[in-house]
Amino acid sequence: xxxxxxFKIGLGLVASVLAMSATAQTVKIGFISTxxxxxxxxxxxxxxxxxxxxKLNGDKLPAGVKVELVARDDGGPNPDxxxxxxxxxxxxxxxxxxxxxxxxxxAIAIAPLVTEAKVPxxxxxxxxxxxxxxxxxxxxxxxxxxxxxxxxxxxxxKKYKRAYIAVSDFAxxxxxxxxxxxxxxxxxxxxxxxxxxxVSNPDFIPFxxxxxxxKPDIVFSFIPGGVQSTxxxxxxxxxxxxxxxxxxxxxxxxxSDEELPNMGDAxxxxxxxxxxxxxxxxxxxxxxxxxxxxxxxxxxxxxFLSVASYDGMDAIYTAIREQNGKIDPDQTIAIxxxxxxxxxxxxxxxxxxxxxxxxxxxxxxxxxxxNGEMANVEIETIPDAKDYWKVFNGKK
Length: 396
Hints:
Distance between the termini: 71 Å
Number of domains: 2
Number of strands: 14
Number of helices: 12
Shape: globular
CATH architecture of the largest domain: 3-Layer(aba) Sandwich
CATH class of the largest domain: Alpha Beta
């Protein structure tokens, strides 16, 4: 009797172990970002958001499922390096998802790999409109430059007549230039000059001097954010464009939230279009900021890359939950195409099922001093903004 009972218990233990093995699942996310070089702060903002989300939401995974982050540094805007890292993550590390990616050229280089390998790729920053057209396995939780720059042009045309355009010389810069011009010229404005600036280590003084010499009413600009926000803002201020009556407008990258304390008074009065501001008066944003400060300190400031990465992880966790941890690439994309979150820190968001791009509010913001500190105060809302490039050119 004892031996029979022991045998049954043994079978039960074996069955339990086998059941656990069958249900246990590690979902691996290959995360590519920029952790070194002059734009290293961008990668830090993104990874902090990803890790914070994982810490706060680990208990929302299915039983027996865990998530492993496999992070890699691309060192900056280097598409060959980005492609190499993606290939290694797919082939050697066998990741279930690719995510992150600051730079549009890198996302473009990675697109054929995820198509061939059928690995869902969650773009958490790169904003070139074309990206999602290059693979059915790409979903973007960040933005496109057309979403911000086109309404910025429309807004500016109601108040100003002459604009100078100064943008970084890569795909997002080209998108922002075309989008702002379309919105501004259609509204009756005139472009009096333009310049494209180097992506890496630019000296903004010569470019802002060219803008000043053109005597515009406004300068419109896009740069990749991070420390370049402070550099271009200081160039604008040091050359006295504001004192000459020139208004600085642009996408939100020129007044990135975490850089505002470094800019002095230069950004006062700048008007930007963007999908996120730490000054946003939303309960979800206040909760996000409280969690961020608790984790990283009261002086740590998240930015638009942080929020896109945080929301990107929420989309990934949604796909994991709905598949009980057993990731099928095509089912994952089907789930993500219908992803919605009414309570993102930036406001309600959803993935457009036709384009796999994000639908979100765009906010017209003015940089003001609030309680002694600089803040991007939201003054107007453009609800449910899609990628206007695809609106005008078809859902390719």
